[in-house]
Write a structure and sequence with these properties.
Elements (H helix, E strand, L loop, with lengths): L1 E6 L3 H12 L4 E4 L13 E3 L3 H6 L10 E9 L5 E12 L2 H14 L3 E3 L4 E7 L2 E6 L3 E9 L20 E9 L6 E7 L2 E7 L5 E8 H7 L2 H7 L5 H9 L1 E2 L5 E4 L9 E2 L2 E3 L14 H19 E2 L2 E2 L1 H27 L5 H12 L1 H10 L6
Parallel strand pairs: 1-2, 1-9, 2-6, 4-11, 9-17
Antiparallel strand pairs: 3-5, 4-5, 7-8, 8-9, 10-13, 10-14, 10-15, 11-12, 12-13, 16-17, 18-19
Helix pairs in contact: 1-3, 1-7, 4-5, 7-8
């Protein structure tokens, strides 16, 4: 019997498990893959979460994350704007950071089950039964941190609406400022690039699936669509691509999601995903894990959770913290993806106070 089972070993799941286990709860975490591994992700974290990570000895100083202080935005036809990031951030690969957090989780006493796919979660008589292909585990509480979509989401409302977006990621070696994150527009999509640890840059883009349908293959789509932006064409021509093939995920949804479903508490991307152009999903995952773990610990009394009070408090606190931020991301995304809108976005960003205000909408307060 566990006090808490976390389904999914990304940033939100790992941080939750660490904080709860350090506080004395018996915690298990299930991850369908084996660490370390790559994920499709922008791999930029704003400094809003750095004090929290340092305070909890979770900042990966030894991995030498890249300090990022500037932002570049380009339109499809090559117009550009440059801004300083007042808060700043750091770049680190999910390959390294997730593995680092996994090691911290094991050190904290979390029982981590790698290569374990959770196929069902059911609640009976106030206890959960979490099933993998080989075994069933009992727990008092379940955190859903299984990412953007999973077989466990099949009955959630957002799954009823198909998403038109796909995400593609590479690691590259290129001549790119190590203190900059850039966002380059192309037709019906945009591409982010920033440096992570070890002199490697992460290149990750979001595209409407119609681009791929029209051009059949990822390579043909990139040449026909992404390379219309001269900055992207130059990156592709002048860089060494380190993966044998790109990482690709489909149906990335920015729809509103239930925060609690069948009494499972959703966290990180499982609770709600900010548009990638805002470049802050990793920070939100960390912040949401801190928020949820604090509420869980407040609810833990005499070996039991006040489930109704916990669920109500979590929905209220999460909404207060993230609802406007996610709405802002969806609205800002409308400024991108076509020649006219991307030129407008660059023009607005070049009006410094307005550009800084737009960037500010994508970042939270330091905590």
């Amino acid at each position: 019997m566990y006090d808490v089972i976390v389904v999914g070993g990304g940033i939100a799941g790992l941080v939750n498990s660490i904080l709860l286990s350090r506080s004395g709860l018996k915690v298990a975490l299930f991850e369908k893959k084996s660490y370390p591994f790559h994920r499709v992700c922008g791999e930029y974290i704003s400094n809003e979460v750095k004090p929290f990570l340092v305070r909890n000895e979770l900042f990966p100083e030894e991995l030498n994350p890249t300090e990022i202080a500037n932002f570049r935005l380009t339109s499809i036809n090559g117009k550009q704007a440059q801004l300083s990031l007042k808060m700043g951030g750091f770049g680190i690969s999910r390959f390294s950071f997730d593995h680092y957090l996994f090691q911290q989780a094991e050190s904290a006493g979390v029982e981590v089950y790698q290569n374990s796919v959770v196929i069902d979660v059911r609640m009976t008589d106030d206890f959960f039964y979490v099933a993998t292909k080989s075994q069933v585990y009992e727990t008092r509480l379940v955190i859903g941190a299984h990412g953007k979509r999973s077989v466990l989401d099949k009955t959630r409302k957002f799954m009823q609406k198909k998403s038109p977006y796909l995400g593609v990621k590479y690691h590259i070696k290129t001549t790119f400022p190590d203190d900059e994150i850039a966002l380059h527009n192309f037709q019906d999509g945009y591409c982010g690039i920033s440096q992570v640890e070890g002199g490697i840059s992460n290149l990750c883009y979001l595209s409407h699936r119609d681009n791929l349908r029209k051009h059949k293959t990822i390579t043909e789509m990139e040449q026909a669509v992404l390379h219309q932006n001269p900055f992207l064409k130059r990156i592709w021509n002048d860089s060494e691509f380190l993966f044998d093939e790109p990482l690709v995920i489909n149906e990335i949804s920015f729809e509103k999601k239930e925060l609690v479903h069948n009494h499972i508490l959703m966290c990180g991307d499982t609770a709600g995903m900010i548009t990638p152009l805002c470049g802050n999903g990793m920070a939100m995952a960390i912040r949401s894990a801190n928020l949820l773990s604090e509420l869980i610990l407040e609810s833990w009394k005499n070996g039991r959770f006040d489930r109704q009070k916990l669920e109500t408090a979590y929905i209220k606190k999460w909404s207060q913290t993230f609802a406007f931020r996610l709405w802002s991301g969806r609205e800002i995304q409308k400024l991108f993806g076509s020649k006219s809108s991307s030129n407008l976005g660059v023009s607005l960003a070049n009006v410094r106070p307005l550009g800084q205000a737009i960037v500010g909408l994508t970042h939270g307060k330091v905590f």
